[in-house]
Amino acid sequence: MKPKLSLITGAAILSVALPSYAADRYETGRPTNKSDQRFQMKRSERLAFPAKASEIMGKEVNNLQNEKLGKVDELGVDVEAGRVALVVISSGGVLGVGGKTIAVPPRAFSYDPSTKALRLDVNKEKFKGAPAFDVSKWDEASQTNQLFETYRYYGQEPYFADLRDIKTPAYHLGRVEKASKVIGMPVVNKENKKCGDIDNLIVDLPTGRIVHLVVSSGGFLGIGDALNAVPPSAFRYTAERDSLLLDISKEELARAPYFKRSEWPNFNDPAYSGKVYRSYGVEPYFSTDADNTARNVRDRQEDRLTPLDQGTSDADVLTTRRIRQEILAREGLSVNARNVKVITANGRVTLRGPVNDQTEKQAIADIANRIAQGGNVDNQIEVKREP
């Protein structure tokens, strides 16, 4: 599908079709709770080019004529809605407007995967005439009416507009915060215990989405430098707005997929990101390769254990944690292998999920058998078949 008012042209620049504005409208009714900004969206989108927010900030922005417009100074993110609300570009003086900062809707950008360059389909005059965005007055500048004017200037329809009633559209904008402030923000769980900090955001500018918030949870879980990718809709700001609440127990977080800081997964893989979403009980907004597959059918069978079947006794939790610690510590294992499901209930361990080869399957089985003792391990790991 193509956007009604697309500013992005040229198949050579962006080979992924951007979702239409219609796909961003509510699938169900308006939120019944005004503080609940987690919109129910149609799952017709696809991942375009997920990237770390820290790598986008500071990146140079050119137009389609390859003229430099400036650099990304900041991202405005609406965490509870899972959205990138705006991209703030510092023109620096390139256009003779020294130090001017300009806000741009994220979906006005295209991304060149070969050069990792951001491009904006505007000429210098159009960009020069854009309203200035005062970063020093962030709260005021990121309110609904200011953002609406920004989107309108670039011919974009705001993600926070509910246009089912065309005559009197409603707007549902959550708290728009600087990405640089969210990164480093403490994360607390439902037991009011700090379980980590926000290490980074995975954002997808061509679709205007926050795909994941990355939490540094290793110290909390006792497993070194582990990172968790978490769907944005799993978070809420605390009342003080100085931290994010992740409604999950320590044991649930330990069972969720995680990875080493030195071995980031491929967030362009919708199957991986879809698996992360579902591990938190969140249905992904994007289409995934795993949808409607035989494996998902098997996962729904009553005789198949899921992470929700994990035992809650101290012994069961400790067994699962020790196995996962050793899996992460084992050198040479793939991301798939590091994220196999480990479920311990009444002393019996079940291993499930895909790995790359038989060697990885055996290595994980050896770890589990040694910790849980022989005869107490049900190895359901599958070797991934090459296409």
Your description of this structure?
The protein is an alpha+beta fold and about 375 residues long. Among the domains are: about 160 residues, SH3 type barrels (Roll); about 80 residues, Histidine-containing Protein, Chain: A (2-Layer Sandwich), CATH 3.30.1340. Helices cover about 25% and strands about 25% of the residues. It has twelve helices and 20 strands. Strands 1, 11, 12, 13, 14, 15, 16 and 17 form an eight-stranded mixed sheet that branches. Strand 11 and strand 12 form a beta hairpin. The longest helix is centred in the last third of the chain and has 16 residues. The two termini are about 30 Å apart. The relative contact order is 0.10. The N terminus is likely disordered.
Q: How would you sum up this structure in a few lines?
A:
It contains 12 helices and 20 strands. Helix content is 23%, strand content 26%.
Helical percent range?
Answer: 10-25%
| Biggest sheet details | 8 strands, mixed
Total beta-strand segments:
20
- Please tell me how large the radius of gyration is: 22 Å
Q: What separation lies between the terminal Cα atoms?
A: 28 Å
Query: In what range is the share of β-strand residues?
Result: 25-35%
- Please identify which CATH superfamily of the domain at 21-177 we are dealing with: PRC-barrel domain
Ranges where pLDDT stays below 50 over 5 or more residues in a row are 1-43, 290-303
Shape: elongated
Topology, element by element:
Blueprint: E1 51-52, H1 53-56, E2 60-63, E3 68-78, E4 83-90, E5 101-104, E6 109-112, E7 117-120, H2 124-128, H3 138-141, H4 144-153, E8 161-162, E9 170-171, E10 177-178, H5 179-182, E11 186-189, E12 194-204, E13 209-216, H6 218-221, E14 226-230, E15 235-237, E16 244-246, H7 250-255, E17 258-260, H8 270-279, H9 294-299, H10 314-329, H11 335-338, E18 341-345, E19 348-355, H12 358-372, E20 377-383
Parallel strand pairs: 2-7, 11-16, 19-20
Antiparallel strand pairs: 1-12, 2-3, 3-4, 3-10, 4-5, 6-7, 8-9, 11-12, 12-13, 13-14, 14-17, 15-16, 18-19
Helix pairs in contact: 10-12
